[in-house]
Write a structure and sequence with these properties.
The protein is of the alpha/beta class. The chain has two domains: about 180 residues, Glycogen Phosphorylase B (Rossmann fold); about 160 residues, Rossmann fold, CATH 3.40.50.2000. Helices cover about 40% and strands about 20% of the residues. It contains 13 helices and 13 strands. The strands form two sheets. Strands 3-2-1-4-5-6-7 form a seven-stranded parallel beta sheet, with helices on both faces. A six-stranded parallel beta sheet has the order 10-9-8-11-12-13, sandwiched between helices. α6 packs across α11 and α9 crosses α12. Its EC number is 2.4.-.-. It comes from Winogradskyella aquimaris. One of its GO terms (molecular function) is glycosyltransferase activity.
Length: about 350
């Protein structure tokens, strides 16, 4: 059996973090001895990790935290780990570990969310580290092509994200507002996610549809963008129409209470939230970024916007609000597509095959 350790910097509720936990949990069903390492920070996703999955927390304090590297090396040797599957920015500590433990193999999973702005990506350190990678998995075709062009790893492939949503037995969230009239935006409070345009669009929507509400679920980083978001709610007088819930672990429960799923990001890889909307059979609105067009390939699957400008977003929401028949039909078709083309079993079978091919 292959022994694989997933590495992620935190267990906060972001897309890359959720995917790392999903891999750690689900690979056990594919003849893999599975473990997970959080390098810098734990978080709510820790409760989602199966008891049978090995776990180590490094509490890494700096980029070159030698104590954290030695702690990780001890764990790897003790548990006879064959492959390190490093997600996002955790590639650096994985590379250091490879240098001091040459027999290890590194798979790097590129979740880079700003795939529309790759010209601004810092590449020098990543390019050096890519010399030590046996395989690169990219979450969309744009990142796949970029890695082939800019990095020094010979094996690069696009691997689809997949949704895994389990029932939560505690800390269940109750969404405010009227049932059947809730719009959900599942996205951390980052500028890339374009919440400000969404708020401006929603202000237009409630002029004619005042009973509808907007529900934002995601991490609040308490930064400048967060301040701007809450000021915008106040400025637009949306305090009784827009609700923010911060990080939540009962995502399936939240999806079941929602009516429409929306993402108006300026850039994405392949957003896990969009797959989760499909998993829960929600009608969707999404901007045409990353590989989102692969999911919403025509209007029968949902509404794909060429930009996230307020007026266009408002028009899209109003269409779904007014046309219940289209809402239901597109949601059902989108859900079937996600189930068929983004099946965890098919994707993980290919991932394990890639693991096995590493020499």
């Amino acid at each position: 059996m292959i022994r694989v350790l997933q590495i992620i910097d935190t267990l906060q509720a972001g897309g890359a973090e959720r995917l790392a936990v999903n891999y750690a949990n689900e690979l056990r069903n594919h003849n893999v001895v599975s473990s997970l390492c959080a390098t810098r920070l734990e978080g709510p996703l820790l409760s989602s990790l199966d008891n049978e999955v090995g776990y180590i927390f490094l509490n890494r304090k700096s980029t070159l935290d030698i104590g954290a590297v030695l702690k990780l090396r001890t764990y790897v040797l003790k548990n006879e780990i064959d492959i390190i599957h490093a997600h996002a920015t955790s590639f650096f500590i994985a590379t250091i570990l490879k240098i001091v433990t040459p027999s290890l193999k590194i798979v790097w999973h590129d979740h880079y969310g700003n795939s529309e702005f790759l010209d601004k990506r810092r590449v020098l350190i990543l390019k050096f580290c890519s010399l030590f990678f046996s395989q690169i998995f990219s979450v969309n075709s744009i990142l796949e092509h970029w890695a082939k062009k800019n990095l020094w790893c010979k094996n690069v492939s696009y691997v689809k994200n997949f949704p895994v949503l389990n029932k939560s037995e505690h800390d269940l969230t109750t969404l405010k507002g009227e049932s059947g009239k809730r719009i959900l935006c599942l996205a951390n409070l980052r500028e890339q996610k374009n919440h400000i345009q969404l708020l401006e669009a929603f202000k237009v929507v409630i002029k004619d549809y005042p009973n509808w509400t907007l529900h934002c679920v995601g991490k609040d980083f308490k930064d400048q963008y967060s301040t701007l978001f809450f000021k915008k709610i106040e400025e637009l007088n949306l305090g009784r129409k827009v609700f923010f819930y911060d990080t939540k672990s009962d995502i399936l429960n939240i999806l079941k209470q929602s009516t429409i799923g929306i993402l108006v990001s300026k850039s994405e890889g392949l957003p896990l939230a969009l797959l989760e909307y499909g998993f829960a059979e929600l009608p969707v609105i999404c901007t045409n970024v990353g590989n989102c067009k692969e999911l919403i390939s025509d209007k029968s699957y949902g509404i794909l916007l060429n930009n996230g400008k307020s007026y266009d977003v408002a028009e899209a929401i109003i269409r779904l609000v007014e046309d219940e028949s289209y809402r239901l039909e597109s949601a059902k078709k989108f859900s079937k597509k996600v189930s068929k083309e983004y099946s965890k079993h098919t994707i993980l079978k290919d991932v394990v095959a890639a693991y096995s091919s590493i020499k």
